[in-house]
């Protein structure tokens, strides 16, 4: 038992030392989905396209990172935020160039109402993937929750440019000197 644990620790350390492979590039596959979001006629169609996008964003760079992502998302879904944060911490340490790890950790922190912790992760996710609609809408919600309404409204507008059907669209407010 001790030997198996030691081997597991050594394997995990080796995997971390070797680093995560580059995240898959889905720009070409996502582009038609972004375009289709501008053409759909209803929420249902938009949600189907959004679901397709999430399949790409949730595709981790390798088997180890996919397992970390899946475990973290499962823990979050069962409200085990400590376990979810632990898995996402491990994921972003292992794969610092994979946007979804940061986005998912931010989501858990948002749910925990730890907006100060969520915001840097959202910024990092958007640095890695500027057109990640989930990270954009998450950043908008986080900024609004922090009372940073102007920035939140600007970010929400950026998200709505990519997906005008976002459920958060009802939160849009006129900016100073502007009408809707």
TrEMBL record:
InterPro entries: TPR-like_helical_dom_sf, TPR_2, TPR_rpt, Ycf3. TPR repeats lie at residues 99-132. SUPFAM superfamilies: TPR-like (SSF48452). Keywords: Repeat, Signal, TPR repeat. Residues 1-17 form the signal peptide. PANTHER family: TETRATRICOPEPTIDE REPEAT PROTEIN 6, UDP-N-ACETYLGLUCOSAMINE--PEPTIDE N-ACETYLGLUCOSAMINYLTRANSFERASE SPINDLY-RELATED. This is Tetratricopeptide repeat protein. It comes from Pelagimonas phthalicica.
């Amino acid at each position: 038992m001790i030997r198996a644990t030691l081997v597991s620790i050594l394997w995990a350390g080796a995997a971390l030392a070797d680093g995560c492979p580059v995240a898959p590039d889905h720009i070409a596959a996502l582009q038609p989905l972004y375009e289709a979001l501008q053409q759909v006629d209803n929420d249902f169609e938009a949600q189907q396209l959004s679901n397709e996008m999430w399949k790409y964003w949730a595709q981790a760079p390798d088997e180890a990172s996919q397992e970390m992502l899946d475990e973290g998302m499962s823990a979050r879904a069962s409200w085990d935020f400590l376990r979810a944060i632990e898995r996402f911490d491990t994921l972003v340490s292992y794969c610092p160039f994979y946007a979804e790890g940061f986005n998912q950790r931010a989501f858990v922190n948002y749910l925990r109402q730890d907006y100060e912790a969520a915001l840097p992760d959202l910024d990092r996710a958007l640095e890695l993937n500027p057109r990640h609609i989930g990270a954009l809408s998450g950043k908008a919600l986080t900024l609004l929750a922090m009372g940073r309404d102007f920035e939140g409204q600007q970010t929400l507008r950026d998200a709505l440019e990519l997906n005008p059907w976002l459920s958060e669209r009802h939160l849009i407010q006129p900016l100073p000197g502007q009408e809707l």
